[in-house]
Write a structure and sequence with these properties.
Layout lengths: L3 H9 L3 E4 L2 E3 L1 E5 L5 E7 L7 E8 L5 E9 L2 E10 L3 E2 L19 E2 L5 E4 L9 E4 L13 H14 L5 E5 L4
Parallel strand pairs: 3-12
Antiparallel strand pairs: 1-2, 1-4, 4-5, 5-6, 6-7, 7-10, 8-9, 10-11
InterPro entries: DUF6978 (IPR053916)
Pfam families: DUF6978
């Protein structure tokens, strides 16, 4: 089983996007609605590990930015940011739950309260979340194409993704 410390190290290790065997320093994409992206990430520091970078947007502007560790056809959620999505944290703490989560035991998140999910050793995957405002994350809401671009930049920084995104907005 992965420990929280190991998960944090994996989130913080530098990573780059790999496409068809090529490691990319930059990637170009056009913003579409709904946006669905899946990229394989690799790290020089952890050569035996493969990560999945996943971005999903619904037609109702629900956004999820996720980082997973891939292990034997299984996805282990390391971190995920949700905009315009609801969530309910567990009602009880577990033995291994870090104190930083105690204020959020049983917390319910409404659509307008962005939050970040973390890997926690016990329980359901990504069951615990903290409000984005409480971790000092730069982008608190997504209301424009510029916010989407800024959210990409901030999430990529959070997960130490070194590949730069060049995002072209939709021309209407």
């Amino acid at each position: 089983m992965l420990t929280m410390e190991q998960a944090a190290r994996l989130v913080n290790t530098p990573k780059k996007i790999e496409v068809k065997g090529e490691i990319l320093d930059n990637i170009q994409l056009t913003q579409r609605v709904p946006l669905q992206l899946h990229y394989r990430l690799l790290s020089n520091e952890y050569e035996d590990y493969v990560f999945l970078y996943d971005v999903k947007q619904s037609g109702k502007n629900y956004f999820k930015f996720s980082l997973y560790l891939m292990e034997n056809d299984a996805k282990i959620g390391l971190i995920r940011i949700d905009y315009n999505g609801q969530h309910q944290n567990p009602e009880a703490k577990t033995e291994s739950l870090p104190e930083e989560f105690y204020p959020y035991i049983g917390k319910s998140y409404s659509y307008n309260e962005p939050h970040v999910h973390y890997y926690v050793e016990e329980g359901k995957s990504m069951a615990w979340a903290i409000p984005l405002k409480d971790i000092g994350f730069d982008i608190q809401k997504i209301t424009s194409h510029a916010d989407i671009n800024s959210a990409f930049i901030a999430f990529n920084k959070l997960i130490s993704l070194e590949t730069r995104f060049n995002i072209e907005p939709i021309l209407i």
